[in-house]
Amino acid sequence: MIVLFESGSFRLMCKHLQLKGKTYYYRRRVPSDVRKLHKAPNTRKTPAQLFFSLKTSDKAEACRRADSHTRRLDALWKAYRERHETEGNAQLALATLEAASLKPGHAKLQPDDPTIDNFLSYYLPSHEPYEPRPTLTAQEQLTVDILYGEKIPRTLSDAKELHFELGKGPKNRVGEQQFDRAWNLLLEITGDITLDNLNREHAREFVRRLVDNGVGPETVKRYLSQVRPVIRTGIQEFELSMTNPFDGLTIPNRDEGPRKPRDTYSMAELDVIQEKCRQTDDQRRWAIAMLSDTGARLAEVIGLKKGDVFLDAALPYIYIRPNELRGLKTKGSERKVPLVGEALWAAKRAMETKGDFLFPCFQPKDTSKPFNSGTASSALNKWLKDNNLAKPGQGLHSFRHTLRDRLRDVETPSDLSNRIGGWTNDGVGESYGQGHSLETMQRYMLKIVRPKDQLAESGS
Asked: Does this entry carry the keyword DNA-binding (predicted)?
């Protein structure tokens, strides 16, 4: 708990907040009855507490984010508990029957078995013959229904658990975080309802909540891609006669593209950035310089190994390919890119670092933790903005857009530009053959690079 404001006898506290180093974290105990909602994939353990970074060192902002998480969790837990007040728990019903040496449908298959009468006499409320039959609780009714052969109700949590058991869940920590955000939102809307009660209105509300919170169309699409496969698994594996409510949803404004288009850099702006990188001359600036004259994606560059850099070749180049640290966005992203201009300078400097990777400063210090380019992206974009090198709409990915324009300006064939940037080519014929040679790619890339002595003479 952190003191947000204090004056005399008045003190304003912010709960579930902890300062670790210079960063604030959210810490909160998870009540035992809702821990199953936070079970990590591929494990049977349920967390006794939640502890994660709020990714800010500003106290007021940390309190705002903590309050948002607290409200979300309160709503999630409330929905789950209210559902269990009015509906029986299938897992509890199955455990009750198993304890009495009974199985689902036993009363239907062996109606004369005395074990059934003994169980019902013990389990159901007793009453005299002249008294009205007592009303059964939701749990009691569900247990009896399953005993007499009714289908076992399967919940959203059942579908999620089976989805993970089948190995279909997220494969790394970033994926887990993305899944948790999407899944928690769904449970806020529905609670842990049975799959056959999930409907189209729930799915539309899921999209509405995201849009109302300012989430862009492509991000909405990613949220849906986390939830939809789990529901599909539940429907298929539990043999339910229903369609997936999350199939074919309309995402508002999706055809308009991203809400925050990335602007390109002018050549003058690019020159200033590259010169600043030379002046600072460290690993982070080498990465920016390499991005500026290769047009590669951030993860592709900072995940390079030194064995992917060929400075002694007749034409220096990097080989962008998957490794144990990171994969690639698409199959066509694997490629060789000539090193020219500031990219060549940066590669030479980076090869002097220690270790197998070209940029060790971006590798996780704890080897058990996954590689995350998001942290590097935030830090490098912040440096660009803090040094007035990037205007609103500009950032690291703008180098990629800028390179595309630079290649257009020197009349680079479209299929060759695609090859350099790892963009998808259209047409079956483009997949035939070995593709463009390094010599051809270098010839066009040299056209877009201005020698530094030329810049000094022009003063631009």
From this structure: yes
